[in-house]
Amino acid sequence: QVQLVESGGGLVQAGGSLRLSCAVSGSIFTINAMGWYRQAPGKQRELVAAITSSGSTNYGDSVKGRFTISTDNAKNTVYLQMNSLVPEDTAVYYCNANARAFNGWRAGDPYDYWGQGTQVTVSS
Fold it and tell me: What is the structure's pLDDT at 119?
């Protein structure tokens, strides 16, 4: 029903930058919020950044001032600009969308949809 496709991960040296993109498609009625989470080996998945449909943002403490989340609502796409990367940012980054999909001709309940994940590796 709803698909999330991420792109933009890769290998970068410490101090460098990367930009992640996530396009949301499918039978979308409305998107309430989108965000990025990450999971490093042996650690729990954690919030990186999130943005609501009204534009309110929330960032994890470790990325404040370095990462910026933004959206192109016309394209149902969310971006994560990551600057001043450090090795501790190495993780698989997952895109998330809290959205209501069409259920027949009606809107379904809000549901958290996830992308497949993209690897970000920061070398020291």
Answer: 98
